[in-house]
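User: Can you predict the 3D structure for this chain?
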Amino acid sequence: MEKWLIVVAVLSSIGMTGCTEKIYPTRKQFIQEVEEFPTPDFTDYKSPQKRPLQNAELGLALSISGGGTRAANFAMGVLLGLEELKLAEGRNALREIDYISTVSGGGFPAGAYVSSLFDYYNYEDQTIPYSLKKCYDNKIKNDLNRSYLAPMVGAFFLAPRLWFSYHDEGDVLERTIDDYVLGYKERKHKHGKKRSILLGDIFIKKEYDDEPVLLPYHVANGTNYENMSIFSFTPDVLEKYLISSYTHRIKKCAADGSVCIDAVDMAYAVGIKASGSFPVAISNTTLESKYWEDKCYLHVFDGGVADNIGYKTAVEILSKDELVHKKILFLIDADNTGIIKTFSPKQRAAGSLSMLGRLSYSSLDTRHVVLEKELTQVCRLYDIQPLMFSFDILLTGNNAVPPEKLIVKEESERLVRLLKNDRQNISAVDLQILYELCVNVPTKYSITTLEQELLTLTGLKIVDMQKDKILELIR
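Assistant: Here is the predicted structure, written as structure tokens:
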């Protein structure tokens, strides 16, 4: 039956070809064929190299891939590992990061890090040095262990407001990210202030003479539904698109649309949620624009579709940074395409619904060998030195053979104990097992405590394995 439906659909589409009776030419499109889509340009913004304990000669960007809570917890482990690498004059490798470019789940650890710095500079005793490890133990660990699926499911079934308005479960996700990952709820509890972090708290314009840059510039990247281009949530890009309204915490901001919003006032959580709106599973984020009255809505969803690791925006930013003499790009990739099979056990052709679902994931499955070749070529073009942090590092130069069968819970518990007690001395076979356990954690918005510990400790271990390369680059 399905085969006949496909035949009918194909014949219908063929039959409709050439039926257009009228064409209405327009050159009012936002981007013409010969133009490039807007990318972040910080010419009018202060340099993040001027932050405290920074090497002003070094431009260091970090990109973090998607992969749900697998990516979030693995990347957090890498960030904690970078903080452990001490440099001269009280600095560490983490503090050298000037720019962060993320897609999908990669926005969670970046958002948690940036928001912890925001709270440190605004509410805490700065005579005590900032510590991501302390923030992780006190708050971030719980936030990255939380299920972000449950609030969406609960709201969908229990909140009539979502049934009779333009609001959806994606808006609930945005509010949950703001509450926990970005600290809104704890900030309200501790300081009595209902205070969401805004883009203007991160990106500081040069005209604000008395306002210092304190945070790395984090760019959350989404994908424009209409043309599949990268959409970066930075004030300058929002201004170019003439964004006039958006939804934050299930409330419409600048709802009358009479004037464009001040882009620096957009909530930080909006971009992180938009970037993590996985195709089919989570509704996209809708922005309203004043650019064209007839078509005023911009739909933004998972940034991994346009760039599955977020490196393109990072390269764009570094290539435009003319104030530094050395440019470095760290890439955290929580890819799990290593478990994707080449052959199918079924002889029958894939059904249309199956094919539709597979296409939603297709752009996320770029193999590492292709990605790394592309990275090498692009970075060489802009004199950028890249360094990858991925599960593949566990297999580099490792010819050990893993066991034929792994009991996931048993092996995970054993390796967590090993990594906690002495992560410097892990056998080649155990590194092979660790790889298998990590890449087999599904892409999802929930995680078990055991999975979280395994992924975070793996991030720390991979920094250890890359230690000499890191120090050689940034010293």
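Residues 187 and 193 are 7 Å apart (CA to CA). DSSP finds 18 helices and ten strands in the chain.
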